Amino acid sequence: MDLLGLETFCAVVDEGGVLAASRTLHTVQSNVTTRIKRLEEELGAKVFFRKGRGLSLTPAGRVLLGYARKMLQLERQAMQAVKQLADEAGEVRIGTMESFAAVRLPDLLFRLRQQCPKVETRIQTDTSESLIRMVLSHELDCAYIGGPFEHDDLICTEVATEQLVLVKSKTLHCVNTLIVFREGCAYRERAHRWQRTYGTSFDLMEMGTLEGILGCVAFGLGVTLMPVSVVEKSQHREQLIYEEIDQQFACIPTLLIRHKRLSRLLGVEVLQQPLGVLN
C-alpha cells in the first residue's frame, strides 16, 4: 500500500474531515480525495461513510486505522534509525506529567541537549493514563508517568520517587474540599486511596493545572495532595503550609515508559537517569 495514501487516511481521521486534513498535509482538497479513492480501490472496500459533509469510519476503515498507524510508525522508525547511524540526529517525542515537567524535566532536557545536541525534542503534558495510551499507540516515544505501573508491551524504568504531602492554606482554611487533577492522574488516584483509608469525607474540585490547584489552596478553597518538590517551587509558596502523610500514600514512583517495539530511543541514557527521592 502507498504510505502517502495511508498518511492521508490517518490525517482525515485525526482532523475530522478532508478540508482540515488538506491543511495539515499542505495540499489541496482534491488531492486528499483522490488519495482516499485510490486507497479504497486498492483495498476493494470503502473506508469512510459519507454523510453530507461529514465522514465516519466503516468497519473496514476501523480495521485499517490500526495497521496504518503501525506502518507509518515503522517508516518513521526506519528513517530515524538510518539517520542516527549517519549523524546521531533525530527527534524524540516526550510525554510528561505537568508536575514532572515543572520541576525535573528542564534539567533533563538541558543534559540531553549537552550530550545529544542534534536531537530535537517535542514535549506533551497530560495525565498518566493518557500518556500511557499515547506511548502504546506510538504517538509518543516515551513518557514520564506516576507509578507503580507495568505493561507487557512497555519498558518501565523508575527514575525518581516523589513525596506527596497534604497542602493547605497558611491563613484560610477550608478542609472539606479536595482539589485534584482530572481523571487519569496518578496523584488523584493516590489522593482517593488516602481519603478512603482514613474515612475522610471531601467534596471534590477538579483543576487542570498545578498552579491552578495550588492557587485555590492558597486562597483557602480546599486542600490537595501534591509532591513537596512542586510546592516548594510554587509561586504561591508563601501562602501555603504542608504536612507529611503516611508513607504508604506519600511515596509515589515516577517511571519512564517506552514501547518494547521501539528499537532505539534517542538520548535514553539521559532520559532514564535515576533522580532519587525528590523533596
TrEMBL record:
Gene3D superfamilies (alphabetical): Periplasmic binding protein-like II (3.40.190.10), Winged helix-like DNA-binding domain superfamily/Winged helix DNA-binding domain (1.10.10.10)
- InterPro entries membership: LysR_HTH_N (IPR000847), LysR_subst-bd (IPR005119), WH-like_DNA-bd_sf (IPR036388), WH_DNA-bd_sf (IPR036390)
* PROSITE patterns in the record: HTH_LYSR (PS50931)
A GO MF term: DNA-binding transcription factor activity
Q: Which UniProt keywords apply?
A: DNA-binding, Transcription, Transcription regulation
A Pfam family recorded for this sequence: LysR_substrate
Superkingdom of origin organism: Bacteria
Q: Where is the HTH lysR-type domain?
A: 1-58
Concerning its family, UniProt says: Belongs to the LysR transcriptional regulatory family.
Protein known as: LysR family transcriptional regulator
Its ancestry begins with: Bacteria, Pseudomonadati, Pseudomonadota, Gammaproteobacteria, Oceanospirillales
